[in-house]
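Quick one - first record:
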Amino acid sequence: MIRKTISLAATGLALLALPAPAAALAPPGFIVGISPQTPADDVDYGLMARAGLQSLRLPLNWSNVEDRSPFYAEPDWSGFDHSVALAARHGMRVFPFVWGTPAWVAPEQRIEPVRDGWARRAWASFLRRSVRRYGPYGDFWRENPELPAYPIRAWEIWNEQNIITFAANPDPGRYARLLRAAGRAIHAADPGAEVILGGLFGRPLQVPPNVASGAFLNGVYRARRVKRFFDGVALHPYVADAGAMRPQIRNLRRIMGIHHDAGTPLYVTELGWGSDSFQTRWERGLLGQARELDQAFAMLAAHRRTWRVAGAWWFSWADSGRLCQFCDSAGLLTERREAKPAWYRFITWTGGDSDVVPRAGFDEWGMPERPPASGSAEGPELVAEEVEGHGD
């Protein structure tokens, strides 16, 4: 009976993995992207391109680029250069979220650099240099003429600034000062660039010290003299099921309408569920992850005009443990880059090639199967690998 049950479960997974009808393809103008949780290599970028992706949302961490004041040391762009180059080589555009205050400006990365005019000028200066490097006719493209040019034209300012993970003390007024300085600097350096209000965590678990997304956005508008400095609002609607995104989005659109900003687009810059089974409210099991993904994209695409949704970026590309409560199973792929059922649902929206990665196998508990260790079917080498991986 146990074997029969496992066999039926495997059959269900195989049926779910079959491609959906072509009608699910994302409509023109609706961006379907990826927000990876860990650095990717050339192989990953090649797979992303063949999967039909055109936009990669990546962190541009100020503290990594300028860990010392530019008055004393040259900025180190090498890490972000590498990512932009890989993306361009594979025909994809990078969509950065800029955050992370260096220690020479504030004692913690999550403290927004707005405590005084000097900090705001340092922040604005970094943004201008970023645009002049990666924007149209930027230094990066001149230094790498062999690459096809995919200049960065959209910049997301900070990340989940309404929760304490990314803001020491979430405050919409303080964030409004950060946004004004960013918008002024970026628009001056590239008048055609879009400045996106950083992704708001839709429904924080602890309020306070966190601030609900609607209350935070309302507070940003009430800070006044801020609207002309941004061109879009981003949301991270992490919910237990796709249908629960609807009230979050409607609430933000209501607030935007109250402040006479109904025409500004909404960007869902993080969206995801884990494939583990219900350890948190964002983990829905293998089949549930695929189902929620499909329903979420269907809802966003269907309401893209009434809600003015510009696109959605799935979190994340591949599984990776030890980062957050559900990150270990949030990927479309396993850590070994094998396809989970959610991968096949995602590909129907991008129109890419679903066969660029092998299909993952899963044991009776829904966990990815690992190949036997060398020289032993179930030897100590495999046990050691498991323990080391969870202990890092």
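second record:
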Amino acid sequence: MIGTSPGPNDSSSLGPVKIGLPLWEVFVEILPPPDPGSELAQGSVDSATVPTVMAAPMLEGPAYRDRGTGLVIFGVFQIILGLLTALMIPLVALGAFMSRLAPGGSMRPGQFISGVATYAFLAAALVTLGIGSVRMKRWGRALTLVTSWYWLIMGVLITILLTAMLPVMMRTMLAQARQSAPAGPSPEMSTGVVAVILTVIIIFSAFFLVLVPTAFVIFYSRKDVAETVLRHDPVERWTDRTPLPVLGASVALFTGAMYMLLVGLTTPMFPFFGRYLTGIPAAACFVGLALVDVYLAIALFRLKSSGWWIAIMVAPVRMLSMILTYRRADLMQAYSKVGISDEQVKMLNANPMFRGHILLWWSLISVVLFFGYLLWLKRYFKETASAQSNALTAQIS
């Protein structure tokens, strides 16, 4: 068990640590016992010359470093991030108002609802996890760790995508602006401004999408952090009932289910084996898939092998449907069917990320990675009693 103090009879340790003893007393304490035939063992040595080490106070120090201060600092930082995320909600409302003045048409109600709901969910999650970390709760540490891994993986993918595609997008936008306004800014000035903007965006993305979650993963993965929350929160929590890797998959499936419900209600456009379904059929598919993911999240959390097998069978079907649809269907035509104006469709079609299905193929990469992760989780679904009883041990190992 990680964090257990070595006992005085443990052959791999030097015995309990004495706090406040002189160096020579500690040295004498760790010496091997005298030979039975030696003068020391027979008592021929003057007792005044032998320090009475065992009479010293036996004070044992903690076998781990308390990370309570770090938990509070990281928790406060999460709360701040949550509050900053909540500030995006009025910005979405401002964007919806300003879009009425734009030539491309106003923002659809579904887009507005989707943006507000997404930022509200992220803000609530960050604030809740921050409070759990400040209070040093087991569930706060467990959920922060698994969500930070998800945050890091997706952040790396998004940062790579932005780094590769933003220059192309900016050049396309500049070319369109020059065609519409030949007397605009000089190409040299525009190139310099674009370079600065791209650099700021990439650095900003790398910091919040890569460096910040990396710091969270490193800190909350520490064994002394796990031991600290175990000592400060001795009551077993629901997150202790399953290993952390399985908890991560369960949280990802549940979060994905909530997102599919949101998309099904706001932008019903479902890739279905070579064509895009829209309207009520698409919404029904999103709801059905969300229900499947909720079931899988619960089944995986309970370490049911049947849930793992269903997840393994469902994932390739999803990937096949996405691949066939991305290769054959017309994305812009599907967008026009869900209420997006012709001007907005033209703008999307001019964007290289949409014109080449790059965003959609990038989402397929995330599905492939998650499928590989599910395969790796097979080790936790061997129906043995030891796997169930050692769930808490797996949490901090």
